[in-house]
Amino acid sequence: MGSLCAIDVPLHYPTARRDESVVDDYHGVKDSLDGKAEVLLDPNTLSEDGTVSLNASAVSEDAKYLAYALSTSGSDWATIKVMRVEDKTVEPETISWVKFSVISWTHDHKGFFYSRYPAPKEGKDVDAGTETNVNLYHELYYHFVGTDQSEDILCWKDPENPKSLFEADVTEDGKYILLYVEEGCDPVNKFYYCDMSALLNGLEGLRGKDDLLPVIKVIDKFDAQYRVIANDDTVFTLLTNKDAPKYKLARVDLKEPTVWTDVLPESGKDVLESASAVNGTQMIVSYLSDVKYIVQIRDLKSGNLLHQLPIDIGSVHRFSARREDSTVFFGFTSFLTPGIIYQCNLDNEIPDLKVFREITVPGFERSEFHVDQVFIPSKDGTKIPMFVMARKNIPLNGSHPCLLYGYGGFNVSITPSFSVSRSVLIRHLGAVYCIANIRGGGEYGEEWHKAGSLSKKQNCFDDFISAAEYLVSAGYTQPSKLCIEGGSNGGLLVGACINKVLEDPDSEETKEFVQKQVELTQSVLKECDTRGKLGEKITKLFDHPRYDAPRKRGNKYFYFHNTGLQPQSVLYVQDSLDGKAEVLLDPNTLSEDGTVSLNASAVSEDAKYLAYALSTSGSDWATIKVMRVEDKTVEPETISWVKFSVISWTHDHKGFFYSRYPAPKEGKDVDAGTETNVNLYHELYYHFVGTDQSEDILCWKDPENPKSLFEADVTEDGKYILLYVEEGCDPVNKFYYCDMSALLNGLEGLRGKNDLLPVIKVIDKFDAQYRVIANDDTVFTLLTNKDAPKYKLARVDLKEPTVWTDVLPESGKDVLESASAVNGTQMIVSYLSDVKYIVQIRDLKSGNLLHQLPIDIGSVHRFSARREDSTVFFGFTSFLTPGIIYQCNLDNEIPDLKVFREITVPGFERSEFHVDQVFIPSKDGTKIPMFVMARKNIPLNGSHPCLLYGYGGFNVSITPSFSVSRSVLIRHLGAVYCIANIRGGGEYGEEWHKAGSLSKKQNCFDDFISAAEYLVSAGYTQPSKLCIEGGSNGGLLVGACINKRPDLFGCALAHVGVMDMLRFHKFTIGHAWTSDFGCSDKDEEFHWLIEYSPLHNVSRPWEQHATQPHQYPSTMLLTADHDDRVVPLHSLKFLATLQYVLSTSLENSPQTNPIIGRIECKAGHGAGRPTQKMIDEAADRYSFMAKMLGASWIE
């Protein structure tokens, strides 16, 4: 650590910047430049290991005092002390909790300005630098030398803008206090000033008052950067980028603050980096020209060029002079120049530039090296400068190890500088060292910066990858010998680029990575001794008949049935409920391995046709076919590229509506489901049975809103086409309709025309959700959350579309989940009450309660009835009930509810189990419901393996349901199984959902962690025996929680998780999730996402908490090759990052818990997965869990 020597008079301090071990900071003050130097402050004496460093320092104008800020262990936090220069006595005061601060003395030498944050609350033990709390409420203070910090004067704060940062400076004439206000890292600031003469009793006059500095606000908006370089009384000269992305000098008289004139206009090519007033009427300025510095002497008043200083190609820094000085010192360095301190004398007309000190490195021979600058085209053609340093005359045969460095952010320019370690790499390892000056930096001004930030951040990665490709193509290196490096924002760059290759499912690197992961995972699973028993037991219990509720069309009934271990359920048809059932469609005959599944189906009103959508390998893509029900003949047409679609028949039975995306361009070979392209330009079509898809009628599109999704439905009376428009995953939609009678020649009348459906737009904004449940001609009843976060039923006459009345008002506590018109004048509705279902019969017209059906605690699903039907079927399940199909007859006054079919699981004894629901306080006190299922009467001694499941997003409610695999875990592994109904879901309506989305997403993680902590404190388990699990958004939940609290879990299972929160919107349907997450293209939302994005928050726990070393829990990430919802790249990139950061980048890593990935082939996000694949996956993940938690098999 460099020492501060008594060679530092104010205004004269030759400096060399600290660059690795070449030279440490020396602040020169002495009576003359050739006077004796004395050590003034040696930070090396302040700690045994050299981890206390000088963060900032400032000498008072009379050179009597030195104020210096010390940081420990590299933290940004600092403590300011004051020393008397004459005798090196340290004053007794200590100024704490200083951060992002300069030190600026007033010219009366009484004290200085500094900036700080509020101290932590009393009683809170903080190891400064290890905490992760958000830094808010910066404040500006003035400290009087010799007084306690408690007496410091608060000069500025802005509690209404808690992210603001404040910096004070005192002008060289001592007359003005300058206050700069910043809020982010953009080169913009507000600019205020205070006339010292306006303070009647000086700064002491503010003591004991609540008044802040009486500033004048010259610039009170964040429109540009403003930095004062000189003033003549009220006439100020400033360096600014106002209307000058490459910066300029401008002048303003504070008496006329709206009148600004340019002194030194913006250059057409070079960036004005700095300007300092010197020698009374001159200034020394530096420009950056193609990442190389130019230094000039200019006239301060006119800006005219006087002289250009003859410096080599390289970088200058630390201009040391005040306006009164005729001698200027500045530092210089380059790739081949360790360091020069120049002394420039301006007494004569021609500047006298000479070397004041030169830094030499023994053993370094610059003649051995060569530096070149090349300009390489990026992906979009932009030329990117890159420096290449190597030994002279190397052959370009691709044989050299190569280190490529980049940063690309926050307007920071990476310019030539010397490095001992880099010279060693080149000299002794034969390496090539390169710096790519990618966009996002400041090398070409603010336009270059903006071209690599926010929505254009991708340019940084493209530039860096193009630089790497150039180094390979030019023969400097080859991929296996190329290393990339970056820190901070450059660390993000490296992480993005090493993972970027995994975004291409067809790249050789991805295939090789996947193959290695498969081999690793299989090697781990072979050691999981319960794997075989789990597979056997789950298979045995899975082998039971399963049914869903029958649905009636025409005079026929249709239902799905699985005999037990069939890959896919089979669709049956029968003429009556007790009639003979026949197989109508068996998906198991459509593929040998059961990976073709039924995605959707719809029977025409007369039960003549079945339209059915088939998906392959679990993809969201589907192909629609049409079958004649009577003879099971399949019509010849095939409807392709269907996605996110329902099938809705018109009542004339001629055809149906469906939704699709445009087909890929001709000649493009696509394995549907493995591509990652963004899904845009959804369209609604109508298909006539017996015709080719090319003849289908385009009914709706909206190219101006390419993210919109369309769904058509036909009312039960057949009179109206309902069009629902969605854009994200929020429960909101637009609602249009088309009166079929308005189509003079029916839908056929649209054939050959460019006209879309002539719809009436009832609701044309995304303000709420609207779903029609019934209509009587133009009077429509809808389920909506308009001004009702727990939902209600409302009615509107389409003849008066602005007049809405409530039919069934919002409940105060329970969430209205569904409503279906039945039995002519009635409706069956379901509520969710503390995550348990209630089913009621109500009057359709008035909404009045008629009957509540007597069902057990659990979940209901799939109400099957039309308005004309007096019999309703619906499904029921719970943690201890495999399944019941209820039949409810409404012919009589009292509903007749009976069991139509009951699903039983041989070998499952519900009497062995117990389910409880608890309500646990989250971090902010909110009560979170959680179900806990275990064997009866277990001792609460912390000995049990425990599986905690969560989701928490997209308004999805996780309600009680039966699971074969979970029952096996509890019965044979002695596990406790829990579901935490955390915020973000729909369990308590839209307010509960919003409390866990967007800027409040952190609540989800806090809730889940609180649930885990409860399970430990209540004695169910202990951290080493606790496993967490979640899928999709729940996979994100698991990823975020293991990053935040790796010490709390022994195992983690993350299925198909959204792991890259900065880029999820760039793949398939990811853009729809911005309604829940936000979007990194927006500055504020970027900051939400970067805080918890699993991919970007992997860290080594043992480095964060050295006194309590932890490692990540044993982790399995599960994904599938045809998951085109949450594409596999999320899991693959997170897996690569976890393995690299925690294990492969270290020789002796403390991370001994395995981090593995299970990558399923011919499967997708989960839907349509064959039975055997589900069994195999359950056996794999839960045997892994059992092994990692130390759970033993119980017969």
Automatic annotation (TrEMBL):
Enzyme kind, highest EC tier: hydrolase
One GO CC term, this protein: cytosol
Residue ranges annotated for the Peptidase S9 prolyl oligopeptidase catalytic domain, each copy included: 416-500, 960-1190
Signal peptide from the UniProt entry: none
Iron listed as a keyword: no
PROSITE patterns reported for this sequence: PRO_ENDOPEP_SER
Annotated Peptidase S9A N-terminal domain residues: 30-350, 502-894
GO biological process, alphabetically ordered: proteolysis
Source superkingdom: Eukaryota
Gene3D superfamilies in alphabetical order: alpha/beta hydrolase, Prolyl oligopeptidase, N-terminal domain
Keyword annotations of the record: Hydrolase, Protease, Serine protease
One Pfam family, short name: Peptidase_S9
Record's keyword annotation contains Hydrolase: yes
Family affiliation: Belongs to the peptidase S9A family.
Entry protein name: prolyl oligopeptidase
Organism: Malus baccata
